[in-house]
User: Fold this.
Amino acid sequence: MTIDELFKTMPSRFNTAAAAGLNKTIQWNIVGEESGTWAFQIVGGEGHLIPNGVENPDVTFTTSAKDWIAIAEGKLDSMKAFMAGKLKVDGDMMLAMKMPQFFPVENA
Assistant:
């Protein structure tokens, strides 16, 4: 799976119940191979993807495509990636910690 394919699946994997009442924007700055910027805006618990990102997201994740795909697939623990410097988080840390609730990992 490419990083672009991963982000395109996000709206269908989004857990609206976990985001009920939220109005927040989450952004990813993917560096290295397959670099790019994507944002996911949550308005009233509903979410949609914004290619190329937004100006002032509530939280921003910066990582490589390889590492974010591994996190999304449940192959790399996000906290371990953060502690190892593979994942940088800027902004609302409480929102960042809710990511596993918003996008649950489907164990294959």
